[in-house]
Amino acid sequence: xxxxxxxxxxxxxxxxxxxxxxxxxxxxxxxxxxxxxxxxxxxxxxxxxxxxxxxxxxxxxxxxxxxxxxxxxxxxxxxxxxxxxxxxxxxxxxxxxxxxxxxxxxxxxxxxxxxxxxxxxxxxxxxxxxxxxxxxxxxxxxxxxxxxxxxxxxxxxxxxxxxxxxxxxxxxxxxxxxxxxxxxxxxxxxxxxxxxxxxxxxxxxxxxxxxxxxxxxxxxxxxxxxxxxxxxxxxxxxxxxxxxxxxxxxxxx
Length: 253
Hints:
The protein is mainly alpha-helical.
C-alpha cells in the first residue's frame, strides 16, 4: 500500500542561485581617457587651444601621470568630433574651423531653438521667467567684469533654461551636438567692442516675448539672435584667417 500524500507538506525545489556579477567600474585608463578628452575638448571649444596649435602626446601624458595610450584614445575621440587632425608623420594639431560646416549648424540650431522658445512662451511660469531674468543679470555682471568665460557659461545656461521651460531639455542637447564649431567661431567674436552687450540685448528681447506669452515674437527674436552668428562669419574670418579652413561663405538665410 502506497502511503497517502494528500496532507503531506509539499517541497518546492528552487533553482540554484547564480552569483550576480559585481558592477564593473571604469579602469584607470578609461577614466583618464574620459578626463583628458573632456578637458582638451573644453580647451579647444573655448579657444584656449587655437586652431593649428600642436598637441604633444608626451606632454599631456606627463601632465596626467599616465601612459600615452589613454592620451591617444582621447585624441581619436576628438578627431571623430572634428576638433583635432592627426597626421601620422607630423603629429596632432587642433583642427581649423570649417567654414562650410557653420551655415548648416546654424540653420539646425535655429530650428531646434525656435521650437523650444515657442513652447517656452506658452508654458513659462512666473518663477521660470524670473530665472531667465536673473540669468540676464549674470550675463551683464560677466560683461562688466570682462569675464568672457563667465559670459559664455551664462549664455549656455540661458539657452538651456529655455529648453527646460519648454519641457524639452533634449532640444538643447541636440543643439550642442551640432554647434561645436559654431561655439569656437563665436568665441572669436566676444572680445569685439559692444558684442556682448548686443547679445544680451537680444537675449532680453527673447525673455520679454516669453513673458508676454507671444510665441511668434519669441521665435522671431530667437531666429534674429542666431542669424547674427551667420552674418558675422565673414568678419570673423577676415580678422582671423588662419583659424578657418574652406572657402568664404555668404549669408544664406
